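User: Modeling request: complex.
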Amino acid sequence: MTDRETCIAQDRTDPLAGLRDAFRLPGDVTYLDGNSLGPLPADLPERLADVVQRQWGDGLIRSWNDAGWIDAPRRVGDKIAPLIGAGPGEVAAADSTSVNLFKLLAGALRLRPGRRVILSEPENFPTDLYIMQGLIELLDRDFELRRAEPDRLADAMDDDVAVVALTHVNYKTGRMHDMAAVTAAAHDAGALMLWDLAHSAGAVPVDLAAAQADLAVGCGYKYLNGGPGAPAFLYVSRALQDEFHQPLSGWLGHISPFAFESDYRPADGIGRNLCGTPPILSMLALDCALDIWRDVDLAAVRNKSVALTDLFIELVERDCAGMGLELASPRDAAMRGSQVSFRHSDGYAVMQALIAQGVIGDFRAPNLLRFGFAPLYIRYVDVWDAAAALSDILRNRAWDDPAYKQRAAVT
Amino acid sequence: MTDRETCIAQDRTDPLAGLRDAFRLPGDVTYLDGNSLGPLPADLPERLADVVQRQWGDGLIRSWNDAGWIDAPRRVGDKIAPLIGAGPGEVAAADSTSVNLFKLLAGALRLRPGRRVILSEPENFPTDLYIMQGLIELLDRDFELRRAEPDRLADAMDDDVAVVALTHVNYKTGRMHDMAAVTAAAHDAGALMLWDLAHSAGAVPVDLAAAQADLAVGCGYKYLNGGPGAPAFLYVSRALQDEFHQPLSGWLGHISPFAFESDYRPADGIGRNLCGTPPILSMLALDCALDIWRDVDLAAVRNKSVALTDLFIELVERDCAGMGLELASPRDAAMRGSQVSFRHSDGYAVMQALIAQGVIGDFRAPNLLRFGFAPLYIRYVDVWDAAAALSDILRNRAWDDPAYKQRAAVT
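Assistant: Request completed. Predicted assembly structure:
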């Protein structure tokens, strides 16, 4: 029978335990929302102060060369690459996930002329669907956004499909697609495959090369801990790069941006997918956060992720039985990302009550309690404490308080 | 006859002199490149440290509500508005200038169905032209980028023109368009008018409302001093907002982003022009930098800008006569932004020699020496010192050194 002491003992033998010190977590919270915003890396305040005071303040414009700002999108991309099974020169950090998705979808449609369908799923993250809708409306031709449930995707892949665009790990439930199988099915249908790795990079094993994925985008501020609104990333497989053209052809994607030519000529390689000047302060915060991953064993990350999420499900189902919770995540860890979600009819208020007790997860409409378990800094004892707090709140109906039902702008 | 003492005396009576203390400028440089990257605001290191450590580190995900991160694009936009003659709710800070230009051009074409021309000028900033090219190529219909020289623009405005898109102050020469006259001509032709204010906001008087301009974009890191790659801004006139639809329809432009609906419904007002999650560290650096403008008299800024640039032209033409320089900027201050450019056949090496002496301007291919005069922190004595250094370098041919001819990545 798992008790709190067992959890503390597991933390003592956890091979990743030392990584918690790479973050500056407040002492009074159990932070299970790193799938939404990762915590502050311990080195970051000093690193960013140097960027601000020495690089910007003293170096001024010279830092574009002297501090290597101009190379940051590619350099940061190369730090992300090993976390997603990509090679050097296949990833760039830039813009937001939404903007990058627009670039890659537009480029994908261009590579499959005559095909008129973007295939996705109804429960994809909304911004992905919105961006598809915006692109299709702009093109004002015969394009279509087709949505198929995960188990019907293969059936929906006919020869009208130009690109299959899915989020690898579902933001609500943590359900994880079989990347290799879905990619192979897309290719069999003659379509390109685009993965949104927002809830995958830094959380679950991703091997874009092994899956032969064509395109990917992802987020810098969740499991990569780059700070609020950190630049996102994009991936274009080496094989596709020379023929790939995206429409946000800003000057930093030009082959020679400082020649100030009148006509656009795309840079070689991944660089042609850059657009405007990147937000350097946010970019170098992400750069700093990525250094934490340098010697991390990704297999150990996955093992711990599975153990933490299994443990949370076990404890919650044991201690909150009959209290209105229903598991919304796959029970099979092989199909699950690094998060666990439960449905509760008063989910919003329950989450507010938890947050008031220092256990920070989040709520997703209409009824989901969402808990992220980032293996770099979450301990087994945190899992215990979160489950115990949840059980207390439900048992005492502590959530049934008008103060916890007041909706904030950001849920 | 102007001498260094005269300049020092002018600084003593300069009504804006005190604003220099709002910046942390290195003691050993004369910084005439604020038109490319503004200097570090003195308050910024402390403000940003608070954002990083208290808001992100302690507040974590809660700061989206508690620290008002979610409102930052609109709040920062409202701080930019008075600098460009816009009202509250007409400006948002977001993305890069290039991305914002794509949004607004695409939205403009949609509002003028049947018209197939984007009208610009050959010497517009390249990223503006590249973005127009990328959009037109994506649309793959009968659209055209038409380029007309500034004095031929009116002739080029036929009833095929959907939108006239120009940069108000030319990045090379500082030549300034007559915003009201060009906008009126565009409207007479039935076209929308879009201004790129990258070299205008914070440098010269801009009154979008008085000019009845429809759309504008601009830069946060030049005269607004928001830091390297700071978020850009966009403006959509109140009158146009309800009917305006842009294709980068990411979740932060949704009317209810945290309802996570399956279909895009645009937010009311300027908010529908947002796309993905903004880079908060860079955004709040810009927010801090904008506070410097709170009580600044914009008429005094213009007066000083004209005086500084007139003085620089006077001194350089007096002290560097016959040394191969040719004025590339309008001599008439009424047609000039807050910069002065001179042509020199060895311009790159001359600028490197100047920078080596601590006078930082920049070079623009093929032969332009570019000097920006930001009235908030540039003194009359700086103008004197820069002109004196330039004259020394040319007289002694100090630029004629292989070290100064080695091109860096960023020029």
